[in-house]
Amino acid sequence: MTLRNDISDIVLSEEKIISLAKSLGEKITEDYKDKNPLLVGLLKGSIMFMGDLIKYIDTHVEIDFMDVSSYSGTKSSGDVKIIKDLNQSVEDRHILFVEDIIDTGQTLNAIIDLIEYRKAASVEIVTLLDKPANRKVDVDVKYVGTEIPDGFVVGYGLDFDEKYRNLPYIGLLKPEIYQ
Ligand SMILES: O=P(O)(O)OC[C@H]1O[C@H](OP(=O)(O)OP(=O)(O)O)[C@H](O)[C@@H]1O
Ligand code: HPA
Ligand SMILES: [Mg+2]
Matching Pfam families, A to Z (predicted)? Predict the structure, then answer.
């Protein structure tokens, strides 16, 4: 048995992910020229997307990470825990959050309030995946790779119970794996 056996459909191939990262990177390059933005990846899901995205940004950027978590299995507890905070001040910095997926919206909603309170010059979000069907709180997302329908996806950083992050594509997890 391979990991592929647990996936019913490939939602985004490796090639498609790279082409989305490239077009998002080009837009970000235009919008952030000479602003030296701080790209903040939310661990752990954003690891692969951060790595690919920054290759296509052709202006100076800095990167940092926050570790936040609210999921147990396929369900958000709604309680967003900060496990690791930023290593630096965001005051007067242009902050761009880098996310793998926006689902209920609760993770970013909680973190954006905190970063605005810390007096960032601007705060925007880039996400590879947007799953609007499941939204519980509104989040204003400036850069979206692609929208996906409802269903629990894994791979390319996204997990189910810490597994499947290492798949090089985004796949729909078979319901029998988590039910
Ligand atoms: O919009 P939401 O419903 O809040 O879901 C999105 C968040 O959930 C996942 O993180 P998770 O809490 O599973 O932590 P992880 O990145 O370490 O897997 C994902 O990586 C996003 O950060
Ligand atoms: O569909 C998903 N898959 C993995 N992690 C997630 N976190 C929010 N939604 C998802
Ligand atoms: Mg997770």
Answer: Pribosyltran
* 127 touches ligand 1 (CB under 6 Å): no
- 103 in contact with ligand 1, CB cutoff 6 A: yes
For the chain, the residue count is: 179
Q: Is the CB of 99 under 6 A from ligand 2?
A: no
Active-site option among 6, 52, 100, 103: 103
User: Residue type at 112?
Assistant: I
* Cα–Cα distance, 45 to 103 (Å, whole number): 13
Assess whether 103 carries a catalytic annotation: yes
In this prediction, residues 96-123 reach a mean pLDDT of 95
Ligand with an atom nearest the CA of residue 68: 1
Mean residue pLDDT of the chain comes to: 96
Spans of all domains in the chain: 14-151
Fold of 14-151: Rossmann fold (3.40.50)
Question: What's the token pair of residue 21?
Answer: 């990262």
172 alpha carbon – ligand 3 mean position (Å): 14
pLDDT for 77 equals 85
